[in-house]
Amino acid sequence: MIPKSMHRLRLFVPLVLAACGGPSNIYQGMDAPAMFRMAEEEMAEGEHDNAIRTLDRLLLAYGDWERVPEARLMLGNAYAAKEEYLTAATEYRRFLDRYPGHPAAADAALGRCRSYSALSPQPQRDQTYTEDALRECSNAALDFAGSPQAEEATEIAREMRTKLAEKDYLNGEFYFRRDLHDSAIMYFEFVIQRYPDTEFAPLALLGIYEANLEIGYEDLAEEARERLLAEYPDSPAADEVRANGSRA
């Protein structure tokens, strides 16, 4: 036999939920435009979890509404604002797959660029996300050339290239300090081949010059020195090799 107190509790809980307006009730009677406005207000107030919940409900209940693409883009922005960048990138990808010709497609492409760049770690760590960011940003810059979004994507791509160049250069430095000069030269050459327009290219040539001197390959060292002076004459690395012939 169930005690009377338990019967009272069973009656009390639904009443409390009804009075508080549970998650399933807050959208009762709202159409798509009203839910969209609610999501916009929640985003403006920094209530990103609430905005995500509202947008999920809108997309589920009104999948054929004319402004669904905008809701999908806002959902990606909400996840990005929460720093859930992989989920944000997924939402932006869904937007681009479903609405490639939409006027906001450039914003979605830039969103993917920004999301992966935000995941890019320090140069000493694995750079998979940096490579992803470089690819996404380069694609955004190419696909939407001439737009403000493309300009920002181009700048982020440049930053990602510089980070990747630094990663290879640091690997070369690591092996150089351990007298593993062949491995050092290999990574320095990666920098020159892949990222010749970065600040690490002249440093890499200086590294090749010094590593070959250590090995005793003076002809290869001189070749690297001449290339450094010819291709990057105004770089600090060129000034250093002119003044000292090797790193101080």
Q: Identify the CATH homologous superfamily of the domain at 179-248.
A: Tetratricopeptide repeat domain
Q: Topology as H/E string?
A: HHHHHHHHHHHH
Show unreliable segments: 4-21
* Mean pLDDT, all residues: 90
Tell me, what is the CATH class of the domain at 179-248? Mainly Alpha
Task: Note the gap between the termini.
Answer: 90 Å
Biggest sheet: strands, sense, closure?
A: none
- Helix/strand-derived category reads mainly alpha
Q: What can you tell me about this protein's structure?
A:
This protein has 248 residues and is an all-alpha fold. Among the domains are: 50 residues, no CATH class; 70 residues, Serine Threonine Protein Phosphatase 5, Tetratricopeptide repeat, CATH 1.25.40.10. It is 75% helix and 0% strand. It contains twelve helices and no strands. Helix 2 runs antiparallel to helix 3, helix 4 runs antiparallel to helix 5 and helix 5 packs antiparallel against helix 6. The chain is elongated. It starts with a helix and ends with a helix. About 7% of the residues have low confidence.
Features:
single chain, 248 residues, mainly alpha, Serine Threonine Protein Phosphatase 5, Tetratricopeptide repeat, 12 helices, elongated
Could you give the topology of this structure?
Blueprint: H1 4-20, H2 32-44, H3 48-61, H4 68-81, H5 85-98, H6 105-119, H7 128-143, H8 148-177, H9 181-194, H10 200-215, H11 218-231, H12 236-244
Short structural summary:
This protein is mainly alpha-helical and 248 residues long.
